[in-house]
Design goal:
By secondary structure, the protein is of the alpha+beta class. It has one domain. The chain has six helices and 19 strands. The strands form three sheets. Strands 11, 12, 13, 14, 15, 16, 17, 18 and 19 form a nine-stranded mixed β-sheet that branches. An eight-stranded antiparallel β-sheet has the order 5-4-3-9-8-7-6-10. A two-stranded antiparallel sheet has the order 1-2. The chain is globular, with a radius of gyration of 21 Å. The relative contact order is 0.13. This is Deoxyribonuclease-2-beta. One of its GO terms (cellular component) is lysosome. It holds the Pfam family DNase_II. One of its GO terms (molecular function) is deoxyribonuclease II activity.
Length: 363
């Protein structure tokens, strides 16, 4: 009888230990899916308003793909919901802010800050958010102006983000990757509008505390390329260029570095868009239209997204998501792209290309 009681007690202890461990894992700072579960990475494509015939035409519908799925799926949530993928992920920021925990840091940046109509070319054409502790964190890179609100205001999606298409990618990283991210952010020169970097991080991270304090650095590299690894081992390359590298990042650097022809989707609202470039060994072609499904498609002039992929049939299949448009003006802006050879991400974005502009004709 005593043995049975001991066995039951041991089982209870093991269950409590398991639940405790599970709770720790669930509490880890990470990208989150729409159920609030931790994922290694996710990417989204917010659809333009009035352009998708199958949608409710609110400008809040989006496509979603993460590390546990294989292809795009249309979200059942709207982007302004706290149950959307961005709402679930940013919930961790609001919880950390409310707890006033000195073991957590965050950095929010956008060249178009929330509740402001001013866009400063002094800073990089960059938009994103980082949240981390000494174990894990995530980096969200997106194209949405005026987003997200400062932590004390909670989650909200801006009305200005409805009209055009928008993209983003979130990657979960272990803390040992943040030293490399720290150097990339220096080159990107983000316009930081809210941040908290407790002193416990100042020894390992040289630049982020200074960026948070808006302390100017006179020694910024022209460009910097680094390899990053997600928490579960997915490899990424991050390209960061400063304004002292006055050229189109996709044609002058990324395509040549990746050794692949690229199809590029960036905002083509006016005539200042750079034409497709075939002057270098590896070419960059402007995507002109995006297809969602069947007859549903929209023009690149309705798309504020920034991404590029290897041309179909290429040996090196890359997908890059980032900050900069193919524009003469933005050749003089700092910013970057994060790139991956993940086959599911590539296939998802490749399937969106309806047609693109060659250097002499449209295909």
């Amino acid at each position: 009888r005593r043995q049975k009681m001991t066995a039951r007690l041991l089982r209870k202890i093991l269950v409590l230990l398991f639940l405790g461990l599970f709770g720790v894992l669930e509490a880890t700072i990470s990208c989150r899916n729409e159920e609030g579960k931790a994922v290694d990475w996710f990417t989204f494509y917010k659809l333009p308003k009035y352009q998708d015939k199958e949608s409710r035409k609110t400008g809040l519908e989006y496509l979603y793909l993460d590390s546990t799925t294989r292809s795009w799926r249309r979200s059942k949530q709207l982007m302004n919901s706290t149950k959307s993928v961005l709402g679930r992920t940013l919930e961790q920021l609001y919880q950390a802010y409310a707890s006033k925990n000195n073991s957590t840091a965050y950095l929010m940046y956008n060249d178009g800050i929330p509740k402001s109509l001013n866009y400063s070319s002094k800073y990089g054409h960059t938009k994103g958010l980082l949240l981390w502790n000494k174990v894990h964190g995530f980096w969200l890179i997106h194209s949405i102006p005026h987003f997200p609100p400062i932590p004390e205001e909670g989650y909200e999606y801006p009305s200005s983000g409805r009209r055009y298409g928008q993209t983003g990618i979130c990657v979960t990283f272990k803390y040992n990757q943040y030293e490399a991210i720290d150097s990339q952010l220096l080159v990107c020169n983000p316009n930081i509008y809210s941040c908290s970097i407790p002193t416990t991080f100042h020894q390992e991270l040289t630049h982020i505390p200074k960026l948070c304090a808006r302390s100017n650095s006179s020694n910024i590299p022209r460009r910097r390329l680094t390899t990053l690894q997600s928490a579960q081992g997915q490899k990424f390359l991050h390209f960061a260029k400063s304004k002292s590298f006055p050229d189109d990042i996709s044609a002058a650097w990324m395509a040549q570095q990746l050794k692949t022809h690229l199809l590029a989707e960036t905002w083509q609202r006016n005539k200042s868009v750079l034409p497709s470039n075939c002057s270098l060994p590896y070419h960059v072609y402007n995507i002109k239209a995006i297809k969602i499904s069947g007859q549903s498609h929209f023009s690149s002039s309705k798309d504020h997204a920034k991404w590029c992929i290897s041309k179909k049939g290429a040996r090196n299949r890359w997908t890059c998501i980032g900050d900069l448009n193919r524009s003469p003006h933005q050749a003089f802006r700092s910013g970057g792209f994060i790139c991956t050879q993940n086959q599911h991400i590539y296939q998802a974005f490749q399937g969106l290309v309806l047609y693109y502009e060659n250097c002499n004709q449209t295909w």
